[in-house]
Amino acid sequence: MIQQASLSQLNDIVPPADASWWPPTWWSLGSVLLFIAIIAFISYWLIQRRLKARARREAYKQLKVLAPATTEQVTLLLKQVALAYYPQQRVSNLHGQQWLTFLLSGMSEKSQQHFNAELQQYDINSELYGQASNAFCELYKAVGCQWLQLDLSKMPGEHNV
């Protein structure tokens, strides 16, 4: 009897409330901040890559519509794009055969051999800086189009940017 009386005086057991998510732990705050930083970095990288690629795509479109392309027009377009990817010191000093070697450097071996074989028929300096023949202008335009189709961010020397 005494035992039953003492049992009736006991209160029900109340379970504790669920754990609150606020305030967060240092580990969860760090994880969220790291995640935000990674997303911000990836977004910035993608935007920069897209902006650089836009210069390449626009130049390619302009180069394709140049009907009677001159070597000066092609060189101007290609140098503008090169300056978007490379330091000015590297691009501004290139001319003549050095410039063509630079354009061909990122292409496949087969493309390099093809264009080098065709370019050997011409005196590069007189064609680039003098009165260029229509055949050379079209060949130079083809080299430029091929170069603009490459992923220029992966070309040799881009790490200097």
Largest sheet, if any?
none
Radius of gyration: 33 Å
User: What separation lies between the terminal Cα atoms?
Assistant: 90 Å
The number of helical runs is 8
Q: Tell me the overall shape.
A: rod-shaped
Give a verbal description of the structure:
- It contains eight helices and no strands.
- It has 161 residues and is mainly α.
Tell me briefly what this model is.
The chain is an all-alpha fold. It has eight helices and no strands.
Question: How would you summarize the topology of this molecule?
Answer:
Elements: H1 2-8, H2 26-65, H3 71-85, H4 88-92, H5 96-104, H6 109-119, H7 124-129, H8 134-148
Keywords:
161 residues, mainly alpha, 67% helix
